[in-house]
Design brief:
Layout: H1 11-23, H2 32-44, E1 48-53, E2 61-63, E3 70-72, E4 79-87, E5 94-101, E6 106-115, E7 118-127, E8 135-138, E9 141-143, H3 145-148, E10 170-178, E11 188-195, E12 206-210, H4 211-217, H5 226-233, H6 256-269, E13 272-277, E14 285-287, E15 291-294, E16 300-309, E17 316-324, E18 328-337, E19 340-349, E20 357-360, E21 363-365, H7 379-383, E22 390-397, E23 403-404, E24 407-414, E25 427-431, H8 432-438, H9 447-456
Parallel strand pairs: 6-11, 17-23, 18-24
Antiparallel strand pairs: 1-16, 2-3, 4-5, 4-13, 6-7, 6-9, 7-8, 7-12, 10-11, 14-15, 15-16, 16-17, 18-19, 18-21, 19-20, 19-25, 22-24
Domain dTDP-4-dehydro-6-deoxy-alpha-D-glucopyranose 2,3-dehydratase: 33-235, 257-456
InterPro entries: EvaA-like, EvaA-like_sf
Pfam families: Hexose_dehydrat
Length: 460
């Protein structure tokens, strides 16, 4: 017979439970102050090392004779391929680039359980070779299909049974979301939160935290990883009382129906043709013994690394990573229309999206890639914001399993009277609750904007 937790709870009950957890900043197992010592202990408890190596020293990786693509000898995990992109909209009508093709759908899953009646979330101190500080707070399970099917020959992925097969509890979140469309080709992950009632054995690298504690940690630099942020962003919007009726309030700038119609129009008007090509057939890109990079040094490189990590399913391995050139800026500009919080979003085109466009941040760029006087719209506006207008600012890593030292300053900026009244056609205001409601569905909100939604939920 199915346990009570295998039944779907009402949205109102789930929202109330999440709101209580968000208001609880003293966990039953670990205080936020104790968390710092715990995370430091987990870092020194294992042997971690990441070092650059030339391509010919990447064990099990090779450049294929037929395609020139960088592939794993097992045929699993991912490949680094070439992409030719033609776009009808945007400053650059055509370009070429390397891109990661990882067609598997991975699982990003967080186990939830009640202690003292309050929902706690099982989080993991996980080492990823591309993280700025290596170890960050990740979901309970963060694994590609190759990993959890043990293509690497290593240990089983802990807690996986809570997310696949018949032993699930009450599902709070279950939705496919895109990954970084600039560096992944049509990559998707299954974002999940599952509440369980049974006893859960807690491994050394795992801890229970309330949503309130996690929200406090989201304000810190390089603590909560990207995969945790995207799952947290998908929690029901109704758990944030101020957002619970944003989609229907008269103060919303657009109805949800009108917003989706606007997005459809942008999809139609912004045609994009992305074709996979040989990695060796990329104009302006050069391959050396150590990297694949543009002649002008802009955007990113593909590099190889040797990794040692005692806490992972496999203790050592080699792999390619994409290395970002420069420090990113990712920002929402926000304001209120008739007492309803709104976010200025952009219909963002990225070559690797399953569809051409998803809703993205107001600003999403690496400023170093742009010549003076050619900055993206509102970058200068965001960078000039005084402290009285900055509601959130912290530095965060991007996907540390595939990107090396890819970091951005994430910001939420209050609009003022100097914000241009006339916006380009690919920008619009969206009620915060509407944006969060769209995260119940796939391929509407990009991964950078999802992080910002997670941060928005922490603000008073």
């Amino acid at each position: 017979m199915a346990s009570p937790l295998e039944q779907e709870g009402s949205e109102a009950d789930i929202a109330a439970d999440l709101a209580v957890s968000a208001a609880t900043t003293r966990g039953f197992h670990l205080s936020t102050v104790e968390f710092d010592d715990w995370l430091a202990e987990r870092f020194v408890a294992h042997d971690f090392e990441v070092s650059r190596v030339p391509f010919d020293e990447l064990d099990h990786w090779t450049f294929a004779d037929d395609s020139g693509n960088l592939t794993h000898r097992s045929g699993r995990f991912f490949t680094v391929e070439g992409l030719r992109v033609r776009a009808t909209d945007g400053a650059v009508p055509e370009w070429h680039q390397p891109i990661i093709n990882q067609p598997e759908i991975g699982i990003l899953g967080i186990v939830a359980k009640r202690f003292g009646g309050v929902l706690h979330f099982l989080m993991q101190a996980k080492m990823e070779p591309g993280n700025v500080n290596l170890v960050q707070l990740s979901p309970t399970v963060q694994a590609t299909k190759s990993n959890y099917r043990r293509a690497h020959g290593g240990n089983e992925v802990a807690y996986l049974h809570h997310f696949i097969g018949p032993r699930r509890g009450k599902v709070i979140v279950d939705v496919l979301q895109s990954e970084h469309g600039s560096w992944f080709y049509r990559k998707r992950n299954r974002n999940m939160v599952v509440e369980v009632a049974d006893h859960v054995e807690v491994g050394h690298d795992f801890c229970w935290l309330t949503l309130g504690q996690i929200n406090e940690l989201l304000a810190r630099d390089y603590v909560v990883n990207m995969d945790s942020r995207t799952v947290l962003s998908c929690l029901p919007a109704s758990s944030v009382p101020a957002w619970s009726r944003d989609a229907t309030l008269p103060g919303a700038h657009r109805s949800t129906h009108a917003l989706l119609r606007w997005l459809t129009e942008r999809q139609v008007d912004s045609e994009l043709d992305a074709q996979r090509v040989r990695l060796t057939d990329l104009p302006e890109w050069n391959r050396t013994d150590w990297e694949i990079t543009r002649g002008d040094g802009r955007f990113f490189s593909v590099v190889g690394v040797s990794v040692r990590a005692g806490s992972r399913e496999v203790s050592s391995w080699h792999q390619p990573l994409i290395e970002q050139h420069g420090y990113g800026i990712v920002a929402f500009v926000v304001t209120e229309f008739r007492s309803v919080l709104h976010v200025l979003v952009r219909a963002t085109m990225e070559a690797g999206f399953l569809g051409a466009i998803e809703l993205g941040p107001t600003v999403q760029c690496v400023p170093a890639n742009y010549a003076p006087g050619n900055a993206p719209f509102l970058l200068d506006y965001v960078m000039a914001a005084g402290p009285e207008r900055i509601r959130y600012a912290a530095s965060h890593s991007e996907e540390g399993g595939r990107f090396r030292n890819a970091a951005s300053q994430y910001m939420i900026i209050e609009a003022d009277e100097t914000l241009p009244k006339l916006l380009p056609a690919d920008y619009t205001w969206v009620a915060a609750g509407q944006l969060a409601e769209l995260l119940r569905h796939s391929h509407y909100v990009n991964v950078q904007a999802r992080s910002l939604v997670a941060f928005l939920k922490t603000l008073p």
